[in-house]
Amino acid sequence: MVASVFHKVAERCAPARVDCLDVAGGTGDIAFRIAEQLAKSPRGTQGSEVTVCDINSSMLQVGEERAAKVLPHVDPALFRWVEGNAEHLDFEDNSFDVYTIVFGIRNVTHVDRAIQEAYRVLKPGGRFMCMEFSQVPNPLIRQFYDAVSFIIE
């Protein structure tokens, strides 16, 4: 249910060209989902770019090899695979419409620096999307969090 609402909102807000940065994207799982959503949209993937950035070049290589197998209908030129550190991104200011980091912020030594970098590379009005697991101290909210955590796709 949460996933379907997320997808509907994302589709309605999609501009004609989307430049996405997936930090700690390694093997491409999130980038592939972004590409699938772009491909399904009326605007398609034309003109858009999904940059996968990870500190581990071996994971990027696996992701690049997987791209053609996982998404044979998507032009491989949609993806850019870049080795880099979340705390010191080698991208121009205001470069991306969307910045994602999924289960990666926990591996960043200086989270504040990574978030500053995310803000720096995002275009004005850009979207920062971070997903991590967490411990919720409030028992009422924890019940909701635990229930939702198991149904998100």
Structure in words:
By secondary structure, the chain is an alpha/beta fold. It has one domain (17-133): Rossmann fold (3-Layer(aba) Sandwich). The chain has five helices and five strands, in the order αβαβαββαβα. α4 links the parallel β4 (96-102) and β5. The N and C termini lie close together (9 Å). The model has no long low-confidence stretch (mean pLDDT 89). One of its GO terms (biological process) is methylation.
In a few lines, what is going on in this structure?
This protein has 153 residues and is an alpha/beta fold. The chain is built from five helices and five strands.
Secondary-structure map with pairings?
Elements: H1 2-12, E1 19-23, H2 29-40, E2 49-54, H3 57-70, E3 79-83, E4 96-102, H4 111-121, E5 122-131, H5 139-149
Parallel strand pairs: 1-2, 1-4, 2-3, 4-5
CATH architecture identity? 3-Layer(aba) Sandwich
Biggest sheet overview: 5 strands, parallel
From the N-terminal CA to the C-terminal CA, the straight-line distance is 9 Å
Helix share bin: 25-40%
Total strand segments: 5
The CATH first-level class comes to Alpha Beta
CATH topology title: Rossmann fold
Quick tags:
single chain, 153 residues, alpha/beta, Rossmann fold, five-stranded parallel sheet, 5 strands, 39% helix, 22% strand, globular, SAM-dependent_MTases_sf, methyltransferase, S-adenosyl-L-methionine
